[in-house]
Design brief:
By secondary structure, this protein is of the alpha+beta class. It has helices spanning 40-43, 47-51, 73-77, and strands at 12-17, 21-26, 31-35, 54-56, 61-64, 69-72. It is built from three helices and six strands, in the order βββααβββα. The strands form two sheets. The chain has a three-stranded antiparallel sheet.
């Protein structure tokens, strides 16, 4: 009898920011920290605009309505 691992898409649970980085917490316990400089729209945004995000598809993506910016968690991992 063989078993196969069930693959789950990585899901974001929250997004935080410090002066230079975006930190995305994932449901499996990982935390991704990326330089804000990698994301021109986010790097120019105010703290209020950065914190106005929505998790899409149970956390598969992140959307900033005021900035017209969308990021996928899968894309961040690649």
């Amino acid at each position: 009898m063989s078993t196969s691992a069930v693959e789950h898409a990585p899901l974001a649970t929250s997004v935080a920011f410090d002066a230079d980085e975006m930190i995305v917490s994932l449901a499996d316990g990982r935390r991704l920290a990326m330089p804000l400089a990698w994301f021109p729209r986010l790097s120019k945004a105010t703290q209020t605009e950065l914190l106005n995000y929505q998790l899409l598809g149970d956390g598969e993506g992140i959307h900033w309505p005021g900035l017209d910016e969308d990021l996928s968690v899968q894309g961040l991992l690649q």
